[in-house]
Amino acid sequence: MTTHHTFPGRWLTATAMVFGPVLLLVAVLLRWPFHYFFPDQLAAVATHPALMTAAHTAFIAGTVLLAPAVVALTHQIGRTRPLLAAWGGCLVLVGLLERTFHAGIDQAAHGLVEHHGAQAATDLVGTSYQNVHLFSFLSFTILFGWLVLAFAAYRSGVLGPARALALAAMCLLPLGVLKGTEVTSVIAVVGLCVALVPGGLRLASNGPKPSRRSVLTTLATTTALGALAYASTLG
């Protein structure tokens, strides 16, 4: 039997479009009290470990959730502007992968603070901050990709001019390892919320409600995934 289903589907798209931007907003607001650059961020990890862990977790969770949201948005754009959709989607997804890479380095640095103190972590990060790696050559995608995707969304009619401009504001979100929050960070993520959250809410509210079988399957799958998630922490 053939269907017209396209990945990531209605419910995953709606979830990603709503919670991805919201989690990023939570993360940048939690980091707001601390200075932007990495020595101050590591000092904050030492003095406010729970708050900084929550901020880090919200940021990486939001970043990962943005991937299916971008895939869905790119699919919509591609109906009328396939070339723009391909370039915009590809650049943004690579940028999201790079932010995930940066988050892994952040997590390692947080561990250094926990086990060896903020000064030792700051010294180590400082000596390796300019090291060249694959993603060093792709950093432009983190910023430039959102501009291309926003232009594509506008040209295709998927987003109007105001929401396309709000999406483009994501190019203002600072990039790199152990970055804190600036005014531009808040502008960028609020713009992302304006661009994506209304579409996610509309998608969730329109269309048929999930069947009883789908709900039960989702509950069972969620329980199994929770167990697997716990097992994954055991080493």
Largest sheet at a glance? none
Give unreliable regions as ranges: none
**End-to-end gap:** 41 Å
Helix/strand-derived class?
mainly alpha
Radius of gyration: 19 Å
Number of strands: 0
Beta-strand residue percentage:
under 5%
Bin the helical content: over 70%
Query: What would you call the shape?
Result: globular
Average of pLDDT: 93
Number of helices: 9
Integer tally of domains: 1
List the secondary-structure elements in sequence, H or E.
HHHHHHHHH
Main features:
0% strand; 235 residues; single chain; mainly alpha; membrane; transmembrane helix; transmembrane; 9 helices
Summarize the model shown.
This protein has 235 residues and is mainly alpha-helical. The chain has helices spanning 10-30, 38-47, 49-78, 82-116, 118-128, 140-156, 161-168, 183-205, 212-232.
Describe what you observe in this structure.
The structure is a single chain. Helices cover 75% and strands 0% of the residues. Helix 4 (82-116) packs antiparallel against helix 6. It contains 9 helices and no strands. 37% of the residues are buried. The protein has helices at residues 10-30, 38-47, 49-78, 82-116, 118-128, 140-156, 161-168, 183-205, 212-232. The protein has one domain (10-208). With 235 residues, it is an all-alpha fold. The chain crosses the membrane at residues 12-34, 54-73, 80-97, 134-154, 161-178, 184-203, 215-233.
